[in-house]
């Protein structure tokens, strides 16, 4: 087997051998102070995000007004019928003198895209059960940027301190083993692998809710992984969406640059120094019934008969310029986090 394919197969089977899962790369679409889910129409939004997916991404994405598969002309995801948008906060390093620099993202194992994220749609162990794809206009949020308590971080959101870029030895399924809900406290030789997992049950009616969460739920008992059934209030089993983001912290590993008291020097772009404000946003935008076909035919990996796949180069070429133009601290140090007073 080709090394790349081997690595991809290895990474996919790592998650859980018995699960059906799509795992594919999406290059960076843009990094922008825009949030059409929580702050629609607000330009700039309160904090910076890193975004992947269809290039119809905009400050406002009102269902019925903006239809991502119709209005996008490209997507940064390798499945070319996926014009959804996926985003999280950015990570910054704070130097001893108080300046900030953005921690770059890098490609995950076995994928050929640039920066961005790895996206999973997981059917789960009960492979015979019907999994219902999201309807047009569907969107959701997991986690909370204002949270500063470990016990309020939902399960399935976590940090893994990687020893090296090969992510070896493998640390087990996401959010198990030594994975943490807080930012890693040590300097990590392979950066961080950050996992953001959404709930897998839906009320079957609402495409959104005021908190962007109440229309979705976790299984009533057990977990998604153990095949737990959905609660009666949210009876519809949806794909479990999961993001993996590799933040390459290596250029910031010199202990001499870390705070003298030994505390860790990283911040989410919303000013959180604990990591507990970890969150992810999702706006559905698959073309037609492509995602339903993918679920019904049990697509796996990043190539599937039921779906169209574009080249990695085409995914990489799909970018969008900043809407809220500002310096984001990629090459030079910033006196404060974009949009924040700290
Ligand atoms: C994005 O929003 C702006 C302003 O609301 C609008 O002019 C523009 O056409 C939108 N772009 C897309 C791709 O929908
Ligand atoms: C702050 O510290 C960083 C990292 O050591 C350094 O590169 C930068 O020049 C410093 N900035 C100022 C304004 O002193």
Automatic annotation (TrEMBL):
InterPro entries: DUF1996. It holds the Pfam family DUF1996. Residues 35-286 form the DUF1996 domain. Residues 1-18 form the signal peptide. The keyword Hydrolase does not apply. It comes from the Eukaryota. Keywords: Signal. PANTHER family: DOMAIN PROTEIN, PUTATIVE (AFU_ORTHOLOGUE AFUA_6G11970)-RELATED, PTHR43662. This is DUF1996 domain-containing protein.
